Amino acid sequence: METPAPRTMWRLVLALLCLQLGEGLLRIPLKKGRSMREVMRENGVLESFLKGLKGDPGRKYLPSNAVAYEPLTNYLNSFYFGEISIGTPPQNFLVLFDTGSSNLWVPSTYCQTPACESHAMFNCSLSSTFSDIGVTYTLRYGFGDLSVVLGSDTVTIQNIVVKNQEFGLSLDEPSNPFYYLDFDGILGMAYPGVGISGYNTLIQNMMQQNQLTEPIFSFYYSRNPTYNYGGEVILGGVDPQLYTGEVLWTPVVQEIYWKIGIEEFSIGPSATGWCSQGCHGIVDTGTFLLTIPGQFMSTFLQQLGAEESDDGYIVDCSSVPSMPTLYFAISGAQLSLPPSVYVLNNDGVCNVGVESTYVSSTNGQPLWILGNVFLRQYYSIFDIANNRVGFALSA
Ligand SMILES: *[C@@H]1O[C@H](CO)[C@@H](O)[C@H](O)[C@H]1NC(C)=O
């Protein structure tokens, strides 16, 4: 074959560049982990975990020092996560892309607990772009707390490069649950108000450093995830191939979390009236289950014929097809969740994929958390410039 003349070669290079730019969007493939339940069962700690940890998925939304207790139901499914890198040269981490928190943290070599040592750890001495901030914080999540010290460095996600990003280097991570998590750290994508004050979130810096094509990010969680492909997070836009039909937009009611209004909740054809004074829902990619306001939980389970057990809320698998579809009225539309979506079949044990919270919204509105169970049915779009969330039926 003839070697192309220099001019032609340049054109080729340019064409390739344009192709890449033209595509415009940054797609990060997400993995889905082995279920935490599986790993814990193998390690013989599942029972003590189920009995010992009192959790409430809403507790991370509380101001510090407030306390809310609610029995743990079912945290033990797995999350979706993807790869980022920090530092120069890059050190790689698997992180949970979490719309329910705002900080970025990864395990670090400052931490010597088994939870840290079983994950990728950031060694700041190996990065020429690292700077120490030195302030320590406790970060609170639905499934546990950890302490971090702040530093700043370059964060790279595919071809997005953010310089001088503040992030937490873990100092201490309790084994329960961090040892059992398949991902190393968490990348928060909520509003800055939730994060450590005075520091830009990664999303803010991406915008300030002109790294996003559009001030939008979106999530696709596959309904049939495998370990190697769980879905995608798309930074800077949407991928219309990953959803069908129209996008339903709904405003964010309070720019702290991605919190939206819910006008009504129905179980099959019957409206429950639970949201007659208005309900709020936090769209949270970092919560696995659908979270129901605690005061409605027992009525809800009764209507579904579910029973509480150590393994969560159980139904007979043969009854799943005849169970009611759930409907959320949002911005005048009805978003449905059929039983095939909200009931999780774990090796022949059928769990209703719900848990409850006793945390309510700002003015006492019942609070829902639209977690992965909901987000597998609906592709979700987070529009920063217009403070709105879009939902479309997942492809
Ligand atoms: C971090 O990197 C430094 C510099 O190479 C090295 O001396 C140190 O042992 C590393 N720390 C850990 C805990 O690996």
What does this structure look like?
The structure is a single chain. This protein is an alpha+beta fold. The protein folds into two domains: about 70-235, Beta Barrel (Cathepsin D, subunit A, domain 1); about 240-395, Beta Barrel (Cathepsin D, subunit A, domain 1). About 15% of the residues lie in helices and about 40% in strands. It has helices at about 5-25, 35-40, 45-50, 115, 175-180, 200-210, 295-305, 340, 370-375, and strands spanning about 25-30, 80-85, 90-100, 105, 130-140, 145-155, 160-170, 185-190, 215-220, 230-235, 245-255, 260, 265, 270, 280-285, 290-295, 305-310, 310-315, 325-330, 335, 345, 350, 355, 365-370, 380-385, 390-395. The strands form three sheets. Strands 2-3-8-4-7-6 form a six-stranded mixed beta barrel. A four-stranded antiparallel β-sheet has the order 14-13-19-20. The longest helix has 18 residues, at about 5-25. The N and C termini lie far apart (about 45 Å). Residues about 1-25, about 50-55 and about 65-75 have low confidence and may be disordered. The structure holds 2-acetamido-2-deoxy-beta-D-glucopyranose (NAG). 2-acetamido-2-deoxy-beta-D-glucopyranose binds near residues 109 and 123. Keywords: Aspartyl protease, Disulfide bond, Hydrolase, Protease, Signal. GO terms for molecular function: aspartic-type endopeptidase activity. Belongs to the peptidase A1 family.
